[in-house]
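Lecture 7, part 2: worked example. A protein chain together with EPU.
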Amino acid sequence: MSLALHISRSVPLAPLTTFGLGGPALSFAEVRETSDLTSALDWARGMGLPVFILGGGSNLVVADEGFAGLVLRLRTRGRRWSEQGRELVVEAAAGEAWDDVVADAVARNAAGIECLSGIPGSAGAAPVQNIGAYGQEVASVVRQVRVLDRRSLEERWLDADACGFGYRDSIFRRKPERFVILSVALGLAKDGAPSLRYPELAAAVGASPPLGAVRDAVLALRRKKGMVVDAADPDSRSVGSFFTNPIVGAAVADEIAARAGAEMPRYPLPDGRVKLAAAWLIERAGIAKGLRMGPVGVSAKHALALVHHGGGKTADLLRLARHVRQTVFDRFGVSLVPEPVFLGVAWPG
Ligand code: EPU
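Predicted complex, written out as structure tokens:
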């Protein structure tokens, strides 16, 4: 084992998450080199301990009991830019802050991720849940992902096709025990035009805006919704959207709209199904923005964000999440699916 790897015992995880909730990790190490990662995985295997890879902790719910295994926090750094044909390709180490990658791309006039400005978390976590916002998804620019195979401890590149991307989904999410993401290679359009597919964003910028203006507009929209992590904004102590937007058949969407008895936001998908707005369903089911349930509540700025106001437990958050889910189910017959990763938590419990 390299001297750089230091394994600590009983490390609180709450401060490493945006929720600020949950218990300790039995064992914990920060990883700055891939060689440390293999040593740590090897060590855990020898000890018979499960391993959890932690990025920015911005999409994570940790059990109050904590995690009886080894948590590895990826702190690898580096962004390498190269020109490949018409594309500018950036290979970002997993531990890079995602938004630093976006800011760098925008500064270089490389288009393709400007709408993903202000998303908290690490570059290595971006493909895991295929982050998306304001009309862009990271899957559309991922060219390759460098992974460490957790079984063989060998490194290799996966092409985008092998990542099994879907809406807030990927092979990394479905099979977390299979790979550790080491870096992500994104292909961006050199001097490309910004993407203005999201009406709310298009309305906020003029015609043909520079990438920087799009980034600023996205940051402003996110801030208005409490979706930029900021110590001064109590509504940002969250994981962003707590539930995914439900995808249903067109007939089911019609039925829900009829039950709602109001104009319902709906986004038709190429396969004929319809994506619904979970935030809208939550409000229509009778859960108001700003609702409090002890130390947790619904964001005052966006009904899809659950917020920890301090002094709470993960159990409080789960109680609220179940209440929201049940209320929407009772009203519309739709079972909302949570977006974050749960560590040591059984959902729905
Ligand atoms: N709405 C409400 N009440 C609210 C908020 C929104 O009725 O409190 C309605 C809006 O009027 C709109 C619709 O719901 O008609 C959609 O709202 P919004 O544009 O804010 O987007 P969203 O569907 O709630 C998704 C992503 C966000 C992403 C935004 C913008 C998911 C689960 N969430 O939210 O991603 O930033 O679109 O593209 O897909 C995240 O994943 O953590 C996240 C923040």
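The first strand starts at residue 8 and ends at 12. The pocket of EPU is lined by residues 133-134, 198, 200, 225, 227, 240-241, 244-245, 265, 277, 279-280, 283, 289, 302-304, 339 (CB under 6 Å). Keep this in mind for problem set question 3.
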